[in-house]
């Protein structure tokens, strides 16, 4: 898994989307739908950076670009 933490979720989707089953989840705990990944940034991923992908879907925990990952609740 590449290290995409802090990166734009839309770019990650474009780079890996065709070859990877992925899900985006709101890391703020508010349960907001992630309809447009380009408006969100990645706070965490499962599996983590530089780990082998063994389970699908890969989960990206995201917050809106204007928000901080610091307030994100780990899942």
Describe the structure.
There is one protein chain. The chain has 75 residues and is an alpha+beta fold. The protein has one domain (9-67). 11% of the residues lie in helices and 25% in strands. A three-stranded mixed beta sheet has the order 1-3-2, with helices on one face. The radius of gyration is 11 Å and the shape is globular. It starts with 8 loop residues before the first helix and ends in an 11-residue tail after the last strand. The model has no long low-confidence stretch (mean pLDDT 91).
List the helices and strands and how they pair.
Layout (H helix, E strand, L loop, with lengths): L8 H8 L5 E5 L13 E7 L11 E7 L11
Parallel strand pairs: 1-3
Antiparallel strand pairs: 2-3
CA-based shape: globular
Terminal CA distance reads: 18 Å
How many H/I helices? 1
In what order do the strands lie side by side in the largest sheet?
Answer: 1-3-2
Main sheet makeup: 3 strands, mixed
- Unreliable spans are none
Order of helices and strands: HEEE
- The tally of domains stands at 1
Proportion in β-strands: 25-35%
Number of strands: 3
Mean pLDDT: 91
Radius of gyration: 11 Å
Instruction: Report helical residue fraction.
Output: 10-25%
The structural class is alpha+beta
Keywords:
single chain; 75 residues; alpha+beta; 3-stranded mixed beta sheet; 1 helix; 3 strands; 25% strand; globular
Quick gist of this model?
By secondary structure, this protein is of the alpha+beta class. It has one domain (9-67). The chain has one helix and three strands; from the N terminus they run αβββ.
């Amino acid at each position: 898994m590449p290290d995409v933490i802090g990166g734009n979720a839309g770019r990650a989707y474009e780079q890996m989307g065709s070859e990877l089953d992925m899900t985006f989840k709101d890391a703020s705990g508010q349960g907001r739908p992630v309809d447009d990944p380009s408006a969100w940034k990645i706070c965490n991923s499962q599996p983590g950076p530089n780990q082998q992908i063994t389970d699908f879907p890969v989960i990206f925990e995201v917050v809106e670009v204007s928000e901080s990952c610091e307030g994100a609740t780990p899942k």
